[in-house]
Amino acid sequence: MSLQRIVRVSLEHPTSAVCVAGVETLVDIYGSVPEGTEMFEVYGTPGVEIYVSPNMERGRERADTRRWRFDATLEIIVVMNSPSNDLNDSHVQISYHSSHEPLPLAYAVLYLTCVDISLDCDLNYEGRQDGNFVDKRQWVWGPSGYGGILLVNCDRDDPSCGVQDNCDQHVRCLQDLEDMSVMILRVQGPAALFDDHKLVLHTSSYDAKRAQVFHICGPEDACEAYRHVLGQDKVSYEVPCFHGDEERFFVEGLSFPDASFTGLISFHVTLLDDSNEDFSASPIFTDTVVFRVAPWIMTPSTLPPLEVYVCRVRNNTCFVDAVAELARKAGCKLTICPQAENRNDRWIQDEMELGYVQAPHKTLPVVFDSPRNGELQDFPYKRILGPDFGYVTREPHDRSVSGLDSFGNLEVSPPVVANGKEYPLGRILIGGNLPGSSGRRVTQVVRDFLHAQKVQPPVELFVDWLTVGHVDEFLSFVPAPDGKGFRMLLASPGACFKLFQEKQKCGHGRALLFQEVVDDKQVQTISINQVLSNKDLINYNKFVQSCIDWNREVLKRELGLAECDIIDIPQLFKTERRKAMAFFPDLVNMLVLGKHLGIPKPFGPIINGRCCLEEKVRSLLEPLGLHCTFIDDFTPYHMLHGEVHCGTNVRRKPFSFKWWNMVP
């Protein structure tokens, strides 16, 4: 129980006070005391509990057990647990005594009206046995935690509306309410109390910019009945007279957690005594609830796919057909962005990242629109944002972005345990430069946003050695049937040279790369012998291998991986403008749809009628129960410095694990 306030009694006239059910009230009996007082007695009507606290060491005792020696250090505490039926229908009586007088020297009476007030929400404490004793003013992480959860209402449930649902102060369709959290104000007590008392719902100006509240003031099936009462420019709302025991409010988030916002939002209801016309209203009691805005969560490639996105451009018909067939095998929906909308920008992975937000009552997919702003820049907002599909973006104020701000440079690992800490939703992986260097990094506003979500703490890898500079150029994750649940694939020049050396020893040194590339006069074939005798190529790939090995050690440390969790995929790189790019189609830059993998066709050396690179990859991945499909992306993607993963995007099933059950 929390302390309410101090009420002073008077010998001259009875005193009236309002108390709140379950909340302690201190009664000051020392302000007006008859001369000669040595002792006192305290009694209350039924339903009034009275305690005397002699000191902190002795705790408290029931007041009606004995006569008390008059001592100004004694505290008298009154508690009522049930609301009153009428005004002043309970009271406390104090009698003052002297050892020299048989009768009390005087009496003081305190009339009480008890009202029960609570501001409540779904505190989400399913795992707790003591749900009645949680502190609503706190928000606690973990399986035994509790606290309200808000979704950023960033979808657009009314397609005819031009903005997201949380960008105005209206409920435009009833489906919009499903994205909001319910907050309930419960009041029990005499209605006459509110003739000179009032209830005010309020929040801080800081929190008002990050959430808003609607009060239902009419028929539930009418949008106009939902009145905007808090949020943005409104920080307080006097609740009108009650017509029942409770009032319902609907709360939506306006902002995701970010560098200047922890995600916590508080709402309060305060009972004010407005009975004295000569003074401003005085507070009697405040109740508080705390919400946390649900974080934006990424989904790793090991989660089941729901929908695949691909762009149709002037020269990728066969590629789109191959992706469509893979999606069909995986049993997921295919969405094709037509050329009229993509304006020949095929890099749909770079444009956006598909994730979700979740509360106990609702899970909402949310697209994170990258700041790259190519010709696809309108696609996430105009085509994906809609009913039950949200949208968020981050743009640097100076609009200075680099290739690292494309979302091929934004990945997430499967769930891991590292250094004794569990990451049940995995860890975000972004590419940057080496510590202390001045190379390219992801723009600050994007990094701030990702770190602020808390549930997938980012790991920054070294990618500035790459021409494009994306983490998906040298790593990916595939599902595995064992306890770990996945394997990490790393591009490996060392593994490629080893494979080619083995083939050379077997007499296949003349086998040619790129022999099967169709209709591309820019590509010249090259034999295994020529590759293995090219010192510049070998030396450059030793440098590339050292860069990948740096990241390998970071990933092992930050994701808790062992060597057995990593598969080296043969891959060579070449230099362009002193940065690295794939020498042949980048095998790790693949589309993962459950057990079905869409892998860039490498056009490696043909030995005994088969591509030895394809055969090697199959031998590494098919024992995991994976099905390898090699997709020709050479002309429409590889020649433009991208591959299958760069040209596709996937919406996946959310984690079964609930984010609020983790401890960041």
From TrEMBL:
Keywords tagged on the record: Calcium, Cytoplasm, Hydrolase
InterPro entries listed in its UniProt record: Cupredoxin, PAD, PAD_C, PAD_central_sf, PAD_N, PAD_N_sf, Prot_Arg_deaminase_cen_dom
Domain Protein-arginine deiminase C-terminal, first and last residues per copy: 284-661
Domain (Protein-arginine deiminase (PAD) central) ranges: 115-273
Keyword Transcription regulation: no
Entry GO MF terms: calcium ion binding; identical protein binding; protein-arginine deiminase activity
Location in or out of the cell: Cytoplasm
CDD domains, alphabetized: PAD_N
Catalytic activity field: L-arginyl-[protein] + H2O = L-citrullyl-[protein] + NH4(+)
Cofactor(s) needed by this chain: Ca(2+)
E.C. number(s) listed in UniProt: 3.5.3.15
Enzyme superclass (EC): hydrolase
Active site positions, chain numbering: D350, H470, D472, C646
Every Protein-arginine deiminase (PAD) N-terminal domain range: 1-113
Coiled coil stretches, renumbered: none
Protein's UniProt keywords contain Kinase: no
A Pfam family recorded for this sequence: PAD
Gene Ontology CC annotations of this record: cytosol; nucleoplasm
Purpose: Catalyzes the deimination of arginine residues of proteins.
Family that this chain belongs to: Belongs to the protein arginine deiminase family.
PANTHER family found in the cross-reference section: PEPTIDYLARGININE DEIMINASE, PROTEIN-ARGININE DEIMINASE TYPE-3
Protein name, UniProt field: Protein-arginine deiminase
Species this protein is from: Pongo abelii (Sumatran orangutan)
Upper taxonomic lineage: Eukaryota, Metazoa, Chordata, Craniata, Vertebrata
